[in-house]
Automatic annotation (TrEMBL):
InterPro entries cross-referenced by the UniProt entry: BlaI_family (IPR005650), WH-like_DNA-bd_sf (IPR036388), WH_DNA-bd_sf (IPR036390)
One of the record's GO molecular function terms: DNA binding
GO BP annotations listed: negative regulation of DNA-templated transcription
A Pfam family recorded for this sequence: Penicillinase_R
Family: Belongs to the BlaI transcriptional regulatory family.
Cross-referenced SUPFAM superfamilies: Winged helix' DNA-binding domain (SSF46785)
The protein's name in its UniProt record: BlaI/MecI/CopY family transcriptional regulator
Top-level lineage group: Bacteria
Keyword terms, alphabetized: DNA-binding, Transcription, Transcription regulation
Length: 123
């Protein structure tokens, strides 16, 4: 199944669902930051996410409990590939250099990255 890109609002709702594992619209709203969006707004976005193939639901009478069917890891992989391909010509080196130049990586993180690289070399 092809993963589609999420809008910022859709991604915010998915982050909540990935955290909760499942939830009714009211439970999703409870986890969103202030100011809380209207019930109908969140309900609409959840239905859009369902149409996009990100969530499904179990019906309990007229209430629906929603749950993710695309994992956070799967979407993270999709989004990272899109970022890498779209902005860094599929070069991890260019992406890493960008984050270093923007001071988004500190010495501790750089050291951890070097350890990961060493582990890859040992395989």
């Amino acid at each position: 199944m092809e993963i589609k890109e999420l809008t910022r609002a859709e991604e915010q709702i998915m982050q909540v669902l990935w955290q909760l594992k499942k939830g009714f619209v009211k439970e999703i709203i409870d986890e969103l930051p202030e100011p809380k969006p209207a019930y109908n707004t969140v309900s609409t976005f959840v239905r859009i996410l369902e149409a996009k193939g990100f969530v499904d639901h179990n019906a309990f009478g007229k209430s629906h409990e929603y749950f993710p069917i695309i994992s956070k890891d799967a979407y993270q992989s999709f989004a990272t590939d899109k970022l890498l391909n779209g902005y860094f010509d599929n070069s991890v080196k260019r992406m890493f250099s960008f984050f270093v130049k923007k001071e988004k990586i500190d010495l501790t993180e750089a050291d951890e990255i070097m350890k990961l690289i060493e582990q890859l070399k040992d395989k």
